[in-house]
Amino acid sequence: MIPVVFVHGFMGGSKQWAAQQDAFEGAPMVTVDLPGFGDNAHLKPLSSIDAYAAWVLQELKDQGITRFHLVGHSMGGMIAQDMVAQAPNRVVQLVLYGTGAQGVLPGRFETIETSKQRALADGATATARRISATWFLERDKSLAYNACAQIAERSHIDAILSGLDAMNQWNGTENLPTLEAHTLVVWGDHDRTYPWSQTEQLWRTLPNASLAVIPNCAHSPHMEKPELFNTVLSDFFAA
């Protein structure tokens, strides 16, 4: 069967996908830890989205994985878009989840430079816990918050700064009409990170896209409502 590859987002890691294990009717599930994050926190982080995309493609090639379904979450969704642009024949179906086509969102709550300065002032651990709380509808009271924050805390300050720089430099808007893979755009209806305008842009601009909105969730429905999230993805891959 065709494997399903999951690419996590900023300050994420492969262990965020624990609730998706064995959820796709026998299809092999492959998770990666980007350099500087999760189980690869010891590796030097990269400084651009396209470099992360090339790294994941090579990592999969080294594992003998040539064709795959691809799920990208948040910053991982940016990476997934660049993976399709770099190697369109390798991606069978694409899920862009809690993400957008611009690294710097219009009307962002603060500039990237301010975020970098705040991370330097607060430290990596405090930054990880503060940011992780925004990914859940009930913030730090969510049952999934602590597990998510513990993964985020593995990110060193250089990875946090590099991730912010990578997003700051990236804009995938021009590529959208060329991404022809069958695509599912997934959004939590209370996502504080990516507003509806970003989700709608993906859905309406990609040539072959469907939309799924997960109710009463913020940025991480795969941890807030894993059974519903898994059902939506399983139905998409089966099609």
UniProtKB/TrEMBL annotation:
Answer whether the UniProt record assigns the keyword Hydrolase to this protein: yes
Q: Fetch the InterPro entries from UniProt.
A: AB_hydrolase_1, AB_hydrolase_fold, AB_hydrolase_sf
Q: Which GO terms describe its molecular function?
A: hydrolase activity
Query: What residue stretches are annotated with the AB hydrolase-1 domain?
Result: 3-226
Name the SUPFAM superfamilies on file: alpha/beta-Hydrolases
Q: Which UniProt keywords apply?
A: Hydrolase
A Pfam family it matches: Abhydrolase_1
Query: What's the protein here called?
Result: Alpha/beta fold hydrolase
